[in-house]
Amino acid sequence: MVLDQEDLQPASRRGLHIAFRPIYDIAVGRVFAYEAMLRSTDGEDGDDIFEQLPRAHHAELDRRVAIASVHLAMTAGLDENNARLLIPIHAAKAAAPGASLAAAAEAGRRAGLPAERLIFAVHGYGEIPGQHLADLVEGHRRAGSLTAFVGLGHDPVGFSPCVRYRPEMVRLDRELVTGIDNSWSRRLMLEELTPKLRDHGMRVIADGVESDSALRRLRSWGIFHVQGDLVAPPVAGMLPPSRITRPTANA
Predict the structure, then answer these.
(1) Any idea what the Cα angle at residue 65 is, between residues 132 and 32, rounded to 5°?
(2) Ranges for the EAL domain (predicted)?
(3) C-alpha pair distances (Å), 18 with each of 100, 187, 196, 229
(4) Class of domain 5-236
(5) C-alpha of 14 from chain center
(6) Which residues, including other chains, have CB under 8 Å from residue 84's CB and lie 6 or more apart?
């Protein structure tokens, strides 16, 4: 057996599980990565779950999620394609900067998934002390893994850490993306924000994509990595195929 049973079930008594959903690259027409998501049976996501959990358990749950994500993704067939695996870090402040990397890398070594195919998605990056955040990004980079800052939205404060610490990827807050067809202010913000991120060498992931028209708008702004109901919803223990199956033309 690859992993201990306790690591395969991050917190089974709470009904928690790992689900996966694709990040689709609309420029080349393939799944770029699968995101591992901590979920509860009540539909709560990782951020909500960590808010309800005593802080003393945060680092351990992050570690277990990292290990379980690798094991379950490989069991579900990640080794059969070239997609990366995006692993969430919800409690970066509660652990040493390389804790999730070490756990995932060891699980990957056992399962045959190299660190070069891992992306670590840092939630709440704006609340992490600067040196800790710098060490986190640099540690991932030295190992060959990528870092994504999660949740860049309307608040301009979230932009500064992105520019300063230079993760390879930034995921937009889904509230910024959802409804862009009907919101002039959201469209304007994305038109201004996207080139700034690209100029600093960061790729952008757009979550909350729900329509073909939104997809075309995002592509016209140079946003090629997308998630949302249009792509595929999260599925527990499986790697769901993308509902989009070809490159998307510009609007």
Answers:
(1) 85
(2) 1-248
(3) 16, 33, 34, 18
(4) alpha beta
(5) 23
(6) 32, 33, 34, 117, 118, 119, 146
pLDDT tens for residues 118-165? Answer: 999 999 999 999 999 999 999 999 999 999 999 998 777 899 999 999
Taking only the tens place, the pLDDT of each residue in 45-81 is 887 788 777 777 888 999 999 999 999 999 999 999 8
CA-to-CA separations, 220 to 69, 74, 105, 142, 166, in angstroms, rounded: 33, 34, 36, 33, 23
Tell me the domain boundaries of the chain. Answer: 5-236
List, in order, residues 6 or more apart from 122 with CB less than 8 Å away: 89, 92, 128, 133, 136, 147, 148, 149, 150, 167
Contact at 8 Å (CB) between 218 and 231?
no
3-state secondary structure labels for all residues of 156-189: HHHHHHHHHHCCCEEEECHHHHCCHHHCHHHHHH
